[in-house]
Amino acid sequence: MKKLRPKSNIDELCYPYIYEDSLLCDYEILTDALTRTVGWAINDLGVLRKQYSENIELKQLEKELKWLLPLCFHLNGSIRGKLAITEEDHQQLLENYRNFKTITAESISGFVLPGGVSPVGILNKCSSMCKQAIRLMVKIHNEEQKEVAEILPKFANLLCNYFFTATVLINQVTGFKETPFVSKSYR
To answer: Is the pLDDT of residue 6 over 90?
Structure first.
């Protein structure tokens, strides 16, 4: 059976690399979806902020998510194209994460079942998408022998943790109490 190939009509091609076999295309599609999902989270956070208009933490979260939005697209193109995530970006995200981690320190200890008002579910999805992106980076680097700069999985791991901590922050502000998860598989 012959391979699928793009046709000559540009209107019938959604992405130039959509027909390639490499997992790099899957990574780029996933990080594109991540970026779009962060945009969705920003929108829903704006709606939530109307209810909590005086809350400085939600205002700061909105500012940081808007800063992260283009960085997610930079994460997207930084393997095939020029590396666009910098150590300065990573350090800023680390500072933002540690700030929210300090603010939420009393709210959570261990695994919890996901829940809360929007955009909590959306940000949980963003966190999971970061994990998927990291797994694809590992496969692209280790199996496909395509160089992946160390800053990219480092940034994506931190981004995953940041999104989770953002959910804890929102739940703390809104008064939603997470349900601890007790694993029957790991003790």
So the answer is: no
CA angle 139, 144, 150 (to 5 degrees): 60
C-alpha pair distances (Å), 38 with each of 44, 95, 126, 178 = 10, 19, 7, 22
Residue range 62-85, pLDDT digits in tens? 999 999 999 999 999 999 999 999
Listed by start position, the domains of the chain span: 22-180
CATH T-level assignment (fold) for domain 22-180: Hypothetical Protein Ta1238; Chain: A; (1.20.1200)
pLDDT tens across 96-135, in order?
Answer: 999 999 999 998 778 899 999 999 999 999 999 999 999 9
What separation in angstroms does the CA of 179 have from each of 26, 87, 89?
34, 36, 33
Count the helices and strands in the chain (H runs, E runs). 5, 2
pLDDT at 96: 98
Residue type, 127: S
pTM of the model: 0.95
The 3-class secondary structure across 60-123, one letter per residue, is HHHHHHHHHHHHHHHHHHCCCCCCCCCHHHHHHHHHHHHHHHHHCCCCCCCCEECCCCCCHHHH
Whether 130 and 159 have beta carbons less than 8 Å apart is answered as yes
Planar angle of CA 97, 103, 109, nearest 5 degrees = 85
d(CA 23, CA 143): 10
